[in-house]
Amino acid sequence: MTANAALISPAISSGLSSQFSPEDVQIDIRNVGKVYGSKTEEPVVALDGVTLRIRRGEFISLLGPSGCGKSTLLGIIAGFQSATSGQLLQDGRPITRPGPSRTVVFQDYALFGWMTVQQNVEFGLKAKGMGRAERAEIARALIAMVRLNGFEDKFPHQMSGGMKQRAAIARALAPDPDILLMDEPFGALDAQTRVLLQEEIARISSEAGKTVIFVTHGIDEAVFLADRVVVMSPRPGRVREEVLVPLPRPRTAEMRSDPWFVSTVNDLWETLKPEWQKGE
Ligand SMILES: Nc1ncnc2c1ncn2[C@@H]1O[C@H](COP(=O)(O)OP(=O)(O)OP(=O)(O)O)[C@@H](O)[C@H]1O
């Protein structure tokens, strides 16, 4: 099924997340700012007044020009770094440090080169003290979910970029996080592999039932994957607008030629082109 004609007009609006009921909200980002500074250099205002609510199970694409603070925001949500101002809550509690309920997939795979796929996926479970048989079973199921069966005993250097990223996704899912944070995970892949993995992550995130926050420069990637695209302004990063994506799930390749998809990608490109050009 594809989106129908009634959905052709792009649902671009602002402040969507303020309409969510409090019990649905999993991540509540309130007026968050981030200034990078040192005694010797000019401070850099990376984020300024970012306010966003994310619902449990939602797939959010964070879209914006280079340097607008997407990775900074993801790092603050992960707990790798702290906000300079504002507040960030997960299920009503402040996020102060990294935790197993939020795992991250980076562009550069971040697999341990000296471990096999199976060992990489088991790593977080072993660290939690889980027994050998149980973690092997969980890892096998996740390796099957990302379609790497038969590659359990391979090392990262024996696999393609796309396969490594599948393994990284399985590893991030292993601790059964509530929230999967993805920082341009397909940025280093060739165009064809990227398209295939977009379809895979759409399937995997639905099957796994996780909240996903997916950072990307790619407009079509952002729209294809998301329930909601959050468009950020150039630095200092703010939420500029939000686009609700009405395409049904599972997302399939033919949705890329759906009239709503095509017109929304074009509209976003027209809106963002001047900013992208400035940032070049
Ligand atoms: N550790 C740091 N110290 C100083 N400035 C930083 C630091 N990290 C990021 N910045 C600056 O903060 C701004 C936002 O960076 P960030 O990496 O979050 O943007 P981004 O939108 O993810 O960019 P890209 O899409 O190019 O990865 C940039 O101007 C960057 O140079």
UniProtKB/TrEMBL annotation:
Question: SMART domains from the xrefs?
Answer: AAA
Q: Which UniProt keywords apply?
A: ATP-binding, Nucleotide-binding, Transport
Q: Name one Pfam family in it.
A: ABC_tran
Q: Which residues form the ABC transporter domain?
A: 27-259
Q: Which domain of life is it from?
A: Bacteria
Please list the GO terms describing molecular function: ATP binding
Q: Which InterPro entries match?
A: AAA+_ATPase, ABC_transporter-like_ATP-bd, ABC_transporter-like_CS, ABC_transporter_ATP-bind, P-loop_NTPase
Q: Which PANTHER family match?
A: ALIPHATIC SULFONATES IMPORT ATP-BINDING PROTEIN SSUB, TAURINE IMPORT ATP-BINDING PROTEIN-RELATED
Q: What's this protein's family per the entry? A: Belongs to the ABC transporter superfamily.
Put simply, this protein is called ABC transporter ATP-binding protein
